[in-house]
Each structure stands twice: as C-alpha cells, then as structure tokens.
C-alpha cells in the first residue's frame, strides 16, 4: 500500500490513506508528506458477538464519514475483511471501489458469515485485484469477470544502475516480502537449489525484512 501511495503522490495525484489503527500511532511505513493520513482508532477485540456487531457498525460509520470527507474519485481497499467493510461503508455513495486480495482465500478463511458476505459484496466492486491466476479461479463467474491479476509493485533499490544491469548476461529472479514463515521463502530456497545447477546463468535475490 505505501509503495503505491508514495508513487502516486510523487507523480501528482492527491492520495488519502484511511486506516482503523490507533490515532496515537504513527504510520509503520514512511509516507510522502503530501499524503493525507487518517487513523480512525477503531481496532481492538470484541467481548461478545453482540459487541462485535456494535463495533463493526461503528467502524462502518467511521469509514463512511472518512470517505465522504475525502471525496475520492475511487476507493482502493486491501485485505479481505477490510474489503468487506469498505464495500458496506461506501454503499450508495457512487464511488467505484477496487478491492484487493493479498492472501490466497483458499488458505485464509474468514468464517462462514464473512465468506458469504464476500461472495455477495465482491459482485458490487468495480474491480477485484488478485496476485495470481490461481486465486482468480477461487471466485464465482460474476466475480471473475471483475477480477484482474496484478502482482505486487517493487521499487528496485538498484534503479540507478539499470544500464549496467541491462548489459549483464546473468538473469536475476527477485523475491520480495517480509521474512516470515507465511511467505514461504524456505520453499523457494529449496526449489531454487534444485534447479540452479541446470541454470547457471540465473541467481536468486530476496528483498525483505522481518
């Protein structure tokens, strides 16, 4: 999110980021000073099912107020549960909403109620963005018609050396992400070790922290 927001701001777009995070917490990632950042202070556990309904209703109202205040040309939401909240909050406002799945929904389940809501609400999204073709096949035909595959953006730290890199005969496979078990870098390393002897002109580079 921060990578895309910073880029869009750098080329002259007006960007607003709205998060449920505590208002006292600064953004984890550095943001362009031109970006309007709003923390709604709507996190925290629910004590009961009734409390969860009340909290979600409060979140939806807070998000809707933030959307109206920003008056955006388009909404882009990230992560499944937040996608549902944004689609509910933006109902009737006439603003196109793009929702983005950042995990594989086959392995990252939300519970029966939210799964049902996803099947219904994603049909109202202007677009559904996923990261692989395999994830596209998870959805029903009406949602697949709205789905586009867009991999994660990467801002290369080597951008100033593009000409030198273009002249190199060696090919580079880049993996980018947090260095945590969920990302599966251990699987990648084992797989690359198996094929590397047959492809000596390739190397593996991992960018990330964690």
Automatic annotation (TrEMBL):
The record's listing under SUPFAM superfamilies reads:
UDP-Glycosyltransferase/glycogen phosphorylase (SSF53756)
Q: Which residues form the Glycosyltransferase subfamily 4-like N-terminal domain?
A: 3-154
Gene3D superfamilies, alphabetized = Glycogen Phosphorylase B (3.40.50.2000)
Matching entries from InterPro entries are given as: Glyco_trans_4-like_N (IPR028098)
Checking Pfam families in the record gives: Glyco_transf_4 (PF13439)
The protein here is known as Glycosyltransferase subfamily 4-like N-terminal domain-containing protein
Origin species, per record, is: Kouleothrix aurantiaca
């Amino acid at each position: 999110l921060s990578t895309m927001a910073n880029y869009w701001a750098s080329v002259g777009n007006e960007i607003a980021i709205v998060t449920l995070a505590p208002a006292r917490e600064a953004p984890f990632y550095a943001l362009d000073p031109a970006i309007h950042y709003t923390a709604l202070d709507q996190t925290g556990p629910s004590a009961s099912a009734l409390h969860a309904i009340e909290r979600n209703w409060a979140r939806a109202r807070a998000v809707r107020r933030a959307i109206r205040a920003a008056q955006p040309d388009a909404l882009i939401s990230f992560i499944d549960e937040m996608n549902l909240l944004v689609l509910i909050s933006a109902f009737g406002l006439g603003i196109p909403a793009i929702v983005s799945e950042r995990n594989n929904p086959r392995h990252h389940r939300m519970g029966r109620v939210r799964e049902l809501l996803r099947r219904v609400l994603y049909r109202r999204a202007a677009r559904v963005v996923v990261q692989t073709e395999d994830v596209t096949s998870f959805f029903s035909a009406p949602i697949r018609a709205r789905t586009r595959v867009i991999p994660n953006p990467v801002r290369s730290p080597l951008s100033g050396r593009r000409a030198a890199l273009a002249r190199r005969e060696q090919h580079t496979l880049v993996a980018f992400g947090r260095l945590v078990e969920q990302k599966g870098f251990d699987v990648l390393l084992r797989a690359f070790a198996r094929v590397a002897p047959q492809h000596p002109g390739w190397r593996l580079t991992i960018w990330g922290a964690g």
